[in-house]
Amino acid sequence: MGSIYGDWLKQQREKAGLTQQQLADAAVMTRSHIAHIEAGRRTPSKEDARRLDRALNTGNVLSSFLPPEEAAVADYFESARLLEQQAVMIREFALSFVPGILQTERYARAVLSTSFPPVGEKECDRLVVTRLGRAELLDSPVTPVMWALLDEAVPRRAIGGPDVMAEQIRHLIHLVEAKRIRLHVIPYAAGFYPLLEGMLTLMWFEDQPPLAYSEGLLTGKLYDAPSVVQRLQHRYDLALSDALPLRDSLALLRMTAKEYGHHG
Question: The pTM is what?
């Protein structure tokens, strides 16, 4: 979401002589949620916008000019990246390759260096540093709580070659064994399941409503409408029910890493 909507909300709040906390109380929201809307990091739900209009006596302006909930943004991942830093729980689903937050340096470089049009070495370095910076979230021993749900194609697809894949899979195994993440693999034998359309990230926050982020070819979408987020959460839960148990998922990863090692 652009900053115009958030800036206008802030102007109306200040014009009314309200602090963020006072507006939050009047609109039955949290102060941090108001702060994120004003900063352009969140789009309020339709119901939130209606409550804000009532609290600020702005008619239906905030409701009528609500940015489209499903519109892709130009720098489509930036909003999701900022929110990722605030999440207390993240659930990732990956259909084709390892989620960025869980990638090793060599795996990330293999993914980012194959873009088209090609990027130069310096630009690739910058992208890799940014991606590895996201993984610093996992330096904390407990927050955010991290779940990873991977299609079996993720460890099977040899991105970067056997040596890179073996290292990447060992990294995932280490994170699980260190109890930093929980990981499940959906085997090919599961057939169709509710997340086969693409990747999905679910995020929960300490004092804000949860949201979802999906990504496709050159586009990404943030969802914070409660009904949409809930539907995507249900899809994740259904897909998780088709996944291998943790122990069996680890066994599959160890076997796959061993197979890559034999090709090295």
Answer: 0.72
